[in-house]
Amino acid sequence: MDSITCICKTSAETSAKASVAKQRDYLFDNYKALLIVLVVMGHFIEPCYRNNEFLYTLKWLIVSFHMPAFIFISGYFSRRELKYAVILKKLLVPYIVYEFIYYFFYIFILHKETGLYLLYPKFSLWYLLALFVWRAATPWVKKCPHYMAGAVAAGLLIGCSDMADNFLSLPRILYFYPFFLTGMKFNRNVLTRLKRTSLRLLCAAAIVLFTGCILYIPVFDTLSVKVFYGRYNYDFLGQDILSGILWRCVCYMVGFVMTFAVMLLVPSRQTCFSYIGTRTMAIYLFHGLTYSYLKDCTTLLKDVSTLPQSLLLLFCCILLAAVFSVPQLSAFTNKIADLRLTDTIAQTVWLASAGCRRLVQRKAASFRWFLYRRKNYVGLTHVMFLGGRF
Fold first, then answer.
1. How far apart are CA 14 and CA 218, in angstroms?
2. pLDDT over 60 (residue 349)
3. What stretches of 266-378 show up as alpha helix (H) in DSSP?
């Protein structure tokens, strides 16, 4: 009897696993695997991409679409609205935990002066904060008419601001928001219909054409790759407002075209690297710690100049992505995402907002009393204040 039960149970588990495998969309797993490897490469070649033409061109190609594509996919998988407590648990709590990890890593490993600036995300942790803001704000934003045009306008206008570029990562949050919204509106069936050989060849030609533009158009020799970062304002990039807005429009166009062009070239079947696309958070976290150590404590990354050295560096980036995708590290990030601190944080936020509201009310009441006494002193019949008569 026990053996029959075990056989039935094993059969049911196998059927369940087969059903999950059948339902899984390997296109996005493969695409995320490619993108996370490009994220690692993009960071590791940062100190040396100006050393040779190969790395310089690769850097332009990577930054032109890797974050727009990642954010687009995040938007696609964010179509189902979640409760605020769940968003806090899955995104804000890990962000705070990882900020502490980076803080202690900077202090005790890198011996680097820093502070626990939760309003100024360290390294790549801005993405978690941005995801939290996008997931929390989008249900309200979608109620506004023409919200997509508004999001693009906000992404263009934030470049005119002189606010601190890393404060709450607001410049990047606004710049990349249209990609997130587009992902939420994306219809997967459209991509299936477009996956034809002729269109794939056209996409490959578009990527080659953009590569040729980087190599042979002189403007790419003087323009900074940071135009694609979304973090820096137009003044920092050496642009006036008009040219900055025009270039940012070009960045939007290139980001969308490259995102869809590469997507059409990514295989839809299960591959040997598909599993990496399901473990991107661990790679995203631990590669940043590794990169920070190599950049601040060694000169290895700065000394890469020849083509063989560049190829070796890229191979090491692929190897690091494979190492950091081991189940143990993914289990760690999953546990962080499941920490039961949500209720406490939610209560803290509510109490803080209630305290701020009471403070504003007290200040407003004091100001109104001041105006009332001033009116009596001056002998005025009434004073208009915010539409109210005293």
1. 58
2. no
3. 280-297, 307-323, 327-337, 342-378
